[in-house]
């Protein structure tokens, strides 16, 4: 088989590499140092590469590996909090606002006073409770007395029933007022005439931050009116957007790699918690993912944009580095070492079909031209094919 030296341009990249090589070795380098091509198999021609070229182009060898391999689906999403993490602060009883010193975005802790409400009705509630509560001891004693007298046929049933009704109604009234006072954060058990007050505190029910304030100092907050919105920071999740075509491949428990554009190089590990059951008008579904390490939630901010990669279930496949596969003339090829010569290597250009792809590896579908012992050029092959 007659060899011939490539003197015409194989490709722009080949010319650039050859020029660089000749500049390094001098214009007097022999033609045997050029890449040689000879007629080969039906897969393509053989390519001869010298040891010096192999070293200069920083080429490397590798073999296909049969291992469990997963691809990833790249998606986008946003950091959100569950519904139970959003708290609207309102009032069971209206009142004038005072002591409001919060700012939007300010952190709050559970039990912290957010502001105060002032209303004369609060005084009446406390007064009514104290009056009802003070009558209970007398009414209970009268009820017990009438019960005894009625049992001994000394008193009439009418007196007994009236004493029972008075006691039970006052007891119910006192209990009702006690519950109403609890709703405005007044402890009825500690209430005395000397500590009746018209101003009551409004506490934060969660740890989080203030997302929005809907009132100002001195304004009147109506019954059930919205005062402010709090967001909990105790649990946040990623809401990812998946296209309809990938919906059937997503399930609870799948691993997710989260990337935050503002945190370059930082990867967070998450897991699919729930897959939406309806498709929106854009033919998409929502997938909820939770961080595996809850401490990483400190890096997140509600509404933050995230990029994610959903890791598909692994399967056994032949894989090589993505740099092994060369796209040329509308096909994918690998360069297989067929012979080690005294001065270099003879490579065969073999057409391949590819499957799944990850960041660094690519699946090669079964091919009779290689096996686990086959040496494949894993780096530098792009300079050898047009």
Automatic annotation (TrEMBL):
Signal peptide start-end: 1-29
All copies of domain CusB-like beta-barrel, residue ranges: 240-310
Gene3D superfamilies xref list: 2.40.30.170, 2.40.420.20, 2.40.50.100, Helix hairpin bin
Record-level GO BP terms: copper ion export; plasma membrane copper ion transport
Pfam families in alphabetical order: Beta-barrel_RND_2 (PF25954), HH_CzcB (PF25893)
NCBIfam families per UniProt: RND_mfp
GO cellular component, one term: cell envelope
GO terms of molecular function: transmembrane transporter activity
Alphabetically ordered keywords of this record: Signal, Transport
Domain named CzcB-like alpha-helical hairpin: residues: 125-182
Family: Belongs to the membrane fusion protein (MFP) (TC 8.A.1) family.
Entries under InterPro entries matching the protein: Beta-barrel_RND_2, HH_CzcB-like, MFP_Cation_Efflux, RND_pump_MFP
Protein name stated in the entry: Efflux RND transporter periplasmic adaptor subunit
């Amino acid at each position: 088989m007659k060899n011939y030296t490539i003197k015409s341009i194989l490709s722009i990249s080949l010319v650039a590499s050859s020029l660089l090589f000749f500049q390094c070795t001098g214009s007097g380098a022999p033609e045997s140092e050029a890449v040689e091509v000879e007629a080969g198999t039906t897969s393509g021609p053989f390519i001869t590469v010298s040891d010096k070229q192999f070293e200069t182009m920083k080429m490397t060898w590798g073999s296909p590996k049969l291992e469990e391999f997963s691809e990833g689906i790249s998606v986008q999403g946003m950091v959100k909090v569950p519904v139970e993490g959003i708290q609207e602060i309102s009032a069971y009883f209206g009142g004038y606002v005072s002591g409001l010193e919060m700012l939007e975005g300010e952190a709050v802790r559970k039990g912290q006073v957010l502001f105060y409400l002032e209303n004369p009705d609060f005084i009446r509630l406390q007064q009514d409770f104290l009056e009802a509560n003070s009558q209970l001891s007398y009414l209970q004693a009268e009820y017990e007395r009438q019960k005894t007298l009625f049992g001994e046929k000394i008193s009439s049933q009418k007196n007994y029933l009236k004493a029972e009704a008075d006691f039970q109604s006052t007891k119910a009234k006192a209990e009702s007022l006690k519950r109403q006072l609890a709703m405005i954060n007044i402890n009825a058990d500690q209430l005395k005439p000397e500590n009746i007050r018209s101003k009551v505190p409004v506490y934060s029910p969660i740890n989080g931050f203030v997302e929005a304030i809907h009132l100002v100092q001195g304004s009147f907050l109506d019954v059930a009116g919205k005062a402010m919105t709090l967001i909990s920071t105790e649990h946040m999740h990623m809401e990812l957007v998946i296209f309809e075509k990938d919906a059937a491949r997503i399930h609870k428990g799948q691993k997710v790699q989260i990337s935050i554009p503002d945190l370059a190089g930082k990867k967070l590990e998450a897991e699919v918690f729930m897959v939406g059951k309806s498709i929106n008008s854009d033919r998409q579904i929502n997938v909820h993912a939770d961080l595996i390490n809850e401490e990483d939630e400190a890096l997140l901010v509600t509404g933050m944009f995230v990029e994610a990669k959903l890791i598909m279930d692994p399967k056994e496949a032949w894989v090589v580095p993505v740099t092994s596969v060369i796209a040329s003339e509308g096909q994918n090829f690998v360069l297989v070492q067929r012979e080690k010569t005294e001065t270099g290597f003879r490579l065969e250009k073999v057409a391949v079909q590819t499957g799944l792809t990850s960041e660094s590896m690519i699946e090669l579908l079964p091919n009779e031209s290689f096996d686990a012992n086959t040496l494949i050029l894993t780096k530098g092959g792009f300079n050898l094919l047009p």
